[in-house]
Amino acid sequence: MAARLRLVDVFAGDLLTLGKGNSNGNGNGNGDVASRWHVGAVVGAWRPRTGGGVVVAVDAGFRLLDATGRVEWASSAVLGPGLRWNDGGCDRDGRFWCGSMDVEARAGRGTLWRLDPDREVAPTLTHLTVPNGLVWSVDGSRAFHVDTPRGTVDVLAHDRGAGTLSGRRPLARVSGGHPDGMALDADGGLWVALWGGAAVHRYAADGRLTAVVEVDAVQVSSCSFGGPGDTRLYVTTSRQGLGETEDPRAGAVFVVDVGVEGAPVATCGS
């Protein structure tokens, strides 16, 4: 059982590690901030590395950090002016993928990038807008992805040898909010954060909506499994664009036991 929770504070450029929270149910699971690593101006996503440490998508490229936060390696810049990183994840073969987007969310300027275990970087999908919520099936043959303005959770075929994605098609149409970050459970269900929807939805492998978790903040940004039995869903929320008195619990991390185990999370092989 992991004792701590790690997440990004996007516009602070920080990678936070939280201590144990004491909340149960749909409560605030923040706990104490055990560490805060400032990794750049804007950080989009992170994942653990197989050999220890983390990979982060930060500023205009990728960085590999050791367990102390020291930079072991940094890619050359791959993002041009007016672009930033957003969400990402690892496939079952150790590749780290992360989406980039226009800072004003202009349509079609987003790209999904891939960092291979040999530290080569390549664009894989283009003409996206707000790439989000990237997870893989346990067997690694399919990827589930969100381009938020589409309003759908999409599935793509994954060629594990080549590291390519193809055949994008909608799996589920999301209502009541905008699909954002996502987590996979051991039964193949997809837990999707709803930006503007104050909720997380679970969709079965056939696209049916099977569960709704209400959240006491409107801008729900992502979710991840952890805790005892790996059945607790940790839910992040955002204060982006809100005034000081709006949505008072926005920016908090919530936790709820959803009674289903999370799928294994892949690590970065770089």
Name the helicity range: under 10%
- Give the strand order of the largest sheet, numbering strands 1, 2, ... along the chain: 3-23-22-21
Strand content: over 45%
The domain tally reads 1
Question: Mean pLDDT score, rounded?
Answer: 94
CATH class descriptor: Mainly Beta
CATH homologous superfamily designation: TolB, C-terminal domain
CATH A-level architecture: 6 Propeller
Order of helices and strands: EEEEEEEEEEEEEEEEEEEEEEE
Q: What's the CATH topology name? A: Neuraminidase
Strand segment tally: 23
Radius of gyration: 17 Å
Shape: globular
Please state the structural category: mainly beta
Pfam families: SGL
GO molecular function: calcium ion binding; gluconolactonase activity
Protein name: Sugar lactone lactonase YvrE
Cofactor: Zn(2+)
